[in-house]
Amino acid sequence: MPDAAQSPRPVPEPEHALIAPGAEFDGLLVLHGPARVEGRLRGEIVGTKLWVGRSASLDARIAVDELVVSGAIAGSVRVRGRALLRATARVTADLEARSLALEEGSVLDGACRTGAAGDPARNR
After folding, report:
1. CA–CA separation, 33 and 48 (whole Å)
2. Is 117's pLDDT higher than 80?
3. What band does 10 get if pLDDT is binned at 50, 70 and 90?
4. DSSP at 87
5. Are 43 and 60 spatial neighbours (Cβ–Cβ below 8 Å)?
6. Is 115 helix (H, G, I), strand (E, B) or coil?
7. Whole domain around residue 36: which residue ranges?
8. Dihedral sign computed on CA atoms, order 70, 20, 15, 99
9. Alpha carbon 46 to chain centroid distance?
């Protein structure tokens, strides 16, 4: 039986969006905790846990610890941990992640690397 102290608990999705539906942001977004984007973002995102909502459209270079996508991303994506593309996700990007899960219906168009080869820390 796995030790409960060693099993990471899933972080619940933030209730409030950092970038709300209808809002737009251009530039560098640095996350110091879990965040959700529902609007449009162009630029760069670095940080911890990011949820990309169904109404979100990102054209960005992304480097985060964990990623859950329900909306659209174009650009490049590097995930130090797990990336999950929900059924409504539309990702047109080169994606590197330690692990990747795709729900049926999700779209990933671009180069993809997972596992140790996809570990951004090893590629520095």
Report:
1. 6
2. no
3. low
4. T
5. yes
6. helix
7. 24-113
8. positive
9. 10
CA distance 108 to 79: 15
| Residue 93 resides in a domain | yes
Residue 101 lies inside a defined structural domain of this protein = yes
Question: Do the domain assignments include residue 57?
Answer: yes
> What is the amino acid identity at position 96?
E
Domain count, the chain: 1
Residue 68, number of CB atoms within 10 A of its CB: 21
Q: Could you tell me how many helices (H) and strands (E) the chain has, helices first? A: 0, 8
| Per-residue confidence (pLDDT) for residue 8, from 0 to 100 | 53
Is 107 part of any domain?
yes
3-state secondary structure of 59: strand
Residue 20 to residue 32: CA distance in whole angstroms:
18
Residue 29 is which amino acid? Answer: L
**Is the pTM for the entire model greater than 0.90?**
no
